[in-house]
Design brief:
By secondary structure, the protein is mostly helical. The chain is 55% helix and 6% strand. Helix 2 (43-56) crosses helix 4 (75-87) and helix 3 packs across helix 4 (75-87). Strand 1 and strand 2 form a beta hairpin. It is built from 5 helices and 2 strands.
């Protein structure tokens, strides 16, 4: 059984008349549980954006060393956050390079939706079996 951590958080949308692209990316990532208040220096967000830019420019992913140098973060910080992104099913490691598992953000939302739907279907089946066994 594959493990994918799914976190959905209700976060208020940016209230500015014309939210910036950065504001919208922050909101999307926070809503999907990728970025949170503990990430004070926004390092996880910065890694996500670097991988998104690499995807856009046609790179075959980035190494942890390339990310560390580009973002001026320690390699340990990069690895920690990449592991979180892999746990969420968003990033894969391909021959020492890290790549996003989606080609668009809309695809990311659809992937998350499918994972959530599959999880709720499993929960419903198990709940039904438990109800039956407990004669509820």
């Amino acid at each position: 059984m594959a493990f994918v951590r799914i976190t959905i958080t209700h976060v208020s949308k940016p209230v500015a008349r014309e939210p910036s692209l950065n504001d919208e990316l922050q909101w999307l990532g926070a809503s999907l549980g990728f970025f949170n208040l503990r990430d004070k220096d926004k390092s996880l967000f910065r890694i996500f954006i670097a991988l998104l830019k690499a995807l856009k420019s046609g790179h075959s992913g980035l190494t942890s060393d390339e990310l560390a140098m580009q973002l001026q973060l320690s390699r340990a910080t990069i690895i920690h956050h990449l592991n979180k992104l892999m746990e969420a099913g968003l990033v894969s490691s391909v021959r020492t390079r890290y790549v996003l598992n989606v080609s668009t953000l809309e695809e990311l939302v659809e992937l998350t939706r499918r994972n959530v739907d599959r999880t709720f279907d499993d929960l419903k089946r198990v709940a039904h079996d438990i109800d039956r066994k407990m004669e509820l």
